[in-house]
Amino acid sequence: MPDGNQEVRKGRKFDQVLEGATSVFMNEGFERASVDDIAKAAGVSKATLYSYFPDKRLLFVEVMRRECERRAREADDLIDKSYPPDKVLPLAAQVIMEFFLSDFGIQSYRMSVSESPNFRELGQGFYDAGPGVIERELIPYFEEAEARGELSIPDKLLAAHQFADLCKSWIFAQRILHLRESFTEEEKQRVLGGAVETFLARYGTKG
After folding, report:
1. 151: three-class secondary structure by DSSP
2. What is the pTM (predicted TM-score) of this model?
3. What is the pLDDT confidence band of residue 8, given thresholds at 50, 70 and 90?
4. What SS3 state is found at 54?
5. 160 vs 45, 53, 68, 202, CA distance in Å?
6. How far apart are CA 82 and CA 88, in angstroms?
7. CA-CA distance, 125 to 131, in Å (whole number)?
């Protein structure tokens, strides 16, 4: 696909193209994903694919954007924000860890780091699909929990990212550097439990 500042055009087979692209990107990664494979998986011609996405990177950004929306909906369905922090934060921690350890999260992160200096939309796409979702989900919850007297957080934006970083402690570095490809449930829960305990020790109210 040609590079450059191109525009995405929507049409009747737009969603079909995205579904095929998501499958190929997840299985092959960005670099190995070919236009031929994406078109075949989507059941469209290469001409149709090019008409929607003249740049493969733009297609990847759109896939990330859609993934962002899907994960945000799942988080909304999973987490009842009327519950106290000791109930909500473990669920939120699980969602965060699952995203950053998933094949999609890992591939998106690696691609964004390598390509974003020359293609800023890619970095923004990953931010929106990961850290951006965390901001949009956690900050309103922090405000509600603080109003109920359950948390005390002066800087909620910073706290949201601190919590996300706690949920990735040790385990993400192992995964992103190819030192480990999988982790036991006990290892994951060790990280997640520590994240919640540390966060509540800092921001939880006493009594």
Report:
1. strand
2. 0.80
3. low
4. coil
5. 43, 34, 17, 13
6. 9
7. 10
The three-class DSSP label of residue 111 is helix
Strand partners of residue 204: 151
119: its two tokens? 């293609």
Q: What is the mean pLDDT of the chain?
A: 86
**CA dist list (Å): 196 to 91, 110, 162:** 10, 27, 11
* Phi, psi angles (nearest 5°) of residue 151: -135, 160
Nearest to 163 by CA among 126, 206, 203: 203
In 3D, which of 125, 201, 138, 200 has the Cα closest to residue 164?
Answer: 138
Q: What digits encode the pLDDT tens for the residues 69-123?
A: 777 777 777 777 889 999 999 999 998 898 889 887 887 788 788 877 877 777 8
Hunting for tokens 């890619």 — which residue is that? Answer: 122
Distance from C-alpha of 88 to C-alpha of 41, rounded to nearest angstrom = 38
Residue that has been written with the tokens 């290469």 in this structure: 46
Beta-carbon count within 10 A of 18 CB: 20
Type of residue found at 163: F
Take residue 147 and report the two structure tokens written for it.
Answer: 């109003």
- pLDDT, tens digit, 9 for 90 and up, residues 19-62: 999 889 878 877 788 999 999 999 999 999 988 888 888 888 88
Q: Which residues pair with 73 in a beta bridge?
A: none
List the structure tokens of 134. Answer: 């965390």
User: Which amino acid type is present at position 145?
Assistant: A
> Which residue from 54, 55, 57, 68 is spatially nearest to 126, judged by alpha carbons?
68
Report yes or no: 42 and 13 within 8 Å, Cβ to Cβ.
yes
